[in-house]
Design brief:
The longest helix has 49 residues, at 59-107. By secondary structure, this protein is mainly alpha-helical. Among the domains are: 11-49, no CATH class; 78-133, no CATH class. The chain has five helices and no strands. It has helices at residues 11-20, 25-33, 35-49, 59-107, 109-133. The structure holds zinc ion (ZN).
């Protein structure tokens, strides 16, 4: 244990002297030579003058925020496999459509044109839904 982390037996006496404004000469001499009591004096003086007056957030509010964050992180973690599956399905759909268009062209040019138009509308709809649902928009 380092000397800095050790506390002095007279720290509470030092803090009490600051609170009561009753600092004896002997205690002043001790504080001058004791690092621990010097820090306690500085902190007690800061609290006494209001320098250390800061607002701490409400514990209930912090707990609620942490709960919301935990739920959001759980939901995001649960959605990751679904997002991967969605992207794989989209890629497979595009590949299948690309393979189906030549086959449809052999049957009928109008059928192929209709299929391309339908797939274009479907792709634009899916892209717009994906864009609207993205949280970083
Ligand atoms: Zn001391």
């Amino acid at each position: 244990m380092s000397e800095r982390s050790m506390s002095c037996k007279r720290e509470s006496e030092t803090i009490g002297a600051v609170r009561t404004a009753n600092m004896t000469g002997e205690l002043r001499e001790h504080i001058a030579g004791c690092e621990s009591c010097g820090e306690a004096l500085a902190l007690a003086a800061a609290f006494a003058t209001g320098m250390a007056d800061f607002e701490t957030p409400d514990a209930g509010l912090m707990w609620h925020k942490m709960e919301l964050r935990r739920k959001r992180e759980r939901a995001e973690a649960a959605m990751r496999p679904a997002i991967v599956a969605e992207r794989v399905a989209a890629v497979l759909m595009v590949v299948c459509a690309a393979l189906a268009v030549p086959w449809l062209t052999e049957i009928s040019a109008a059928l192929s044109l209709t299929a391309v138009a339908g797939l274009t509308v479907l792709g634009l709809s899916a892209a717009s839904i994906y864009w609207l649902a993205s949280p970083k928009r």
